[in-house]
Amino acid sequence: MIDPLSVDWPSARRTSYLVEQTFRYEYPAPIRDLTHRLVVIPPERFGDQQRLEHRLDVGAGDARIEDRQDRFGNLVFQVFAPRIDSCVEFTARVQVERHAGEPHRLADGWLREGYLLEPTRLTLPDARIRRAARQLTASTPWGLELAEKAMEWVYQSITYQDGVTGVRTTAAEALAIGRGVCQDYAHLMLALCRACKLPGRYVSGHLVGEGGTHAWVEVVLPARDGTGEAIAYTFDPTHACRGGLNYVTIAVGGDYSDVAPTSGSYVAPVRGRLTTRKRVSLMSLEYAG
């Protein structure tokens, strides 16, 4: 394994990673009729990222597992178990490879579903966000330059702090608080971009060298070759930078609610307790010649 802190990321041309992630739920009494949703394995291809192998283990002997592709192209697993006595554990293992210099192209018809421009409950702009959008669009050309300015505005508008927001916090609420975590930065940038008529989507994945799951934004702009296709550009407003090969994508959507790594329901009079573990290992690296 290679230490990510020692890597000259701008000079890297190929990387491969092993991502291992565990979610363990413990219950003080038996539960029944567990229905669980997991979005922890990336699709086979995502831009320059290729999934080489994957495995999902469920620590419940009588569980039934189904997988499907959602409308965003994400790989979604559904787990069903009639009874869990005390605990259930989900372990995902995936190996991916990334190559520099390959733009992430979306096929013709990329705007057809509309979610790239439609505000969601978590990205609905308030008066302050709409005002910022008017100011930015009045002074900056539409496109990549406007996306850069939107990212900078978000980075300057809130301070990173864990524990003050949650997965249901909206972009406007995080802005009013002035603090938040990566999902809040991503939601705020999406709210601003969509108010500026810049198509964008929420991305969930891993930033190599960081502890938890990370979130960032892709701004989707028409390709200039007349094919009708588009190119997705990565922006990380939490760090005010463009994404590189040290980002591993798991899923995309309109906001966090579309790509939550783990969620579900069960029947019981008590609540469970969740513990998680994650490790992203850089397995191989090549630099540009």
Number of strands: 17
Helical amount: 10-25%
Shape verdict: globular
The fraction of residues in strands falls at 35-45%
Number of helices: 5
Biggest sheet features: 6 strands, antiparallel
Radius of gyration: 20 Å
Give helix and strand order, one letter per element, not per position: EEEEEEEEHHEHEHEEEEEHEE
Low-confidence stretches: none
Mean pLDDT: 95
Structural class: alpha+beta
Distance between the termini: 21 Å
Topology, element by element:
Blueprint: E1 12-26, E2 31-38, E3 45-46, E4 49-58, E5 64-69, E6 75-84, E7 87-99, E8 104-106, H1 127-139, H2 144-157, E9 159-160, H3 171-177, E10 179-180, H4 182-195, E11 200-207, E12 214-222, E13 230-236, E14 241-242, E15 247-253, H5 256-259, E16 262-267, E17 273-287
Helix pairs in contact: 1-2, 1-4, 2-4, 3-4
